[in-house]
Amino acid sequence: MIGSNANRLTVAQRRRAMRLAYANAALWAIGDGLASTLLIIYLASHYGAGGLAISLIIAAPRLVGTLRLAAPWMIAWIGDRGRFSVGMYALGAAVLLALPPLTAPGVLPNRRLALAVLVGMWSLYHLLEYLGTASLWSLLGDVAPARIRGRFIGRRERWLLSGRIAGMLAAGSFAWLWNGRLAAPLGAEQQRWAGYQIPACIGAVLMLAAVIPLMRLPYVPLTRPPGRFSLAELFAPLASRPFRRLMWYGCWFGLFNGITQTTQRKYAIDVLGLSLLLSQAMRAGMRLGQIALSPTVGRWIDRSGHRGVMIASQLLVAAGLLFFVSATPEQWWWVIGAWVYWTAYVGLNVGLPNLMLKASPDADFSSAASVYFALTGLCFAASAIASGVLWDVISTMPSPPFAWVFVGGWLARSLGVVFLLLLIEPVVRRSK
Known about the structure:
Structural class: mainly alpha
CATH topology: Growth Hormone, Chain: A
Distance between the termini: 21 Å
Oligomer: single chain
Number of strands: 0
Helix content: over 70%
Order of helices and strands: HHHHHHHHHHHHHHHHHHHH
Shape: globular
CATH architecture: Up-down Bundle
Number of helices: 20
Largest sheet: none
CATH superfamily: MFS general substrate transporter like domains
Radius of gyration: 21 Å
């Protein structure tokens, strides 16, 4: 049964909650790997999606994700963080399960409508997932005491990475076998679509299964009466100076992480000619490195703080873009170096949520998670759309200046170190 009758979790409840959180992460991540953004981009590419359309697939979920600001009100109205999170994740998985068959070739009258429905359903799925995640971070804030939360997040990140690797490689391998090796009794277009549709649907089913551990997760009940939540409570985290400093960095990183997204992906598909399987294999290699490092990074953060780990990660992540400058169709393997450097994302993936929870002034963390992810996601979405427009402009030039985009992205991302130097490490004021 969801919830806990105690004001704080017992040691036994915390240990059980950690195990259930890891199980939830693993199942959800396998499903997410099977139905990844890259898979949806390949689906859209069959409808002739250009740079702007691809950027909308990347950005639209983050744009609608600003509606997660409503999560604290919705949680307060329902009065139960756990049931809210379970409901949002279950609804999101149901939408994702319906997406591939509803947008398959021949189902809708024309390709433009099919592409619009694909983007719309992809965005709705993410909105529901984001609402559930805002509540989930609130629950996870109850699970581990602040002094060991970095290690808990690092271990959970390992389960997330392992599951995504398994899902991505399974999706890429299935698409390769289906479209190149298996004799399916379908037309060429329908056969290619089915090669992407089947993994996505299996992924959605696994995401539904991931709700089961979440349903059994112990947590501390809300103390406020159901239905009461104010605008001042929503934006209360911004009154915290450490939280504001973290927001500055998060928004900067969102802006200059998004501006190269479409160019990175379209360059790999349209210029380098990389297959889905090869792209997924490189992504999987990056995550294998992160699996090895994430618990250790969590311990470093718990012992020595966030700033040093995150600065090193930021500089390596920024430098990864430079490998695209040397990559050509004949020497595509240069991009492998980018994915090796992007293993350093592990420092940000563990450090950012841990610092967000640590800098949060609200007791259940839901406002901090909603505000942080909504505003930084909006910055990412705006720049990702700009990235799509940029691709559509430069890709039509006689000599497209792709290298300048990657060099500019490297410089801009590197400047994020300035904001990391300004971070404030909060003193833990409560024992969870």
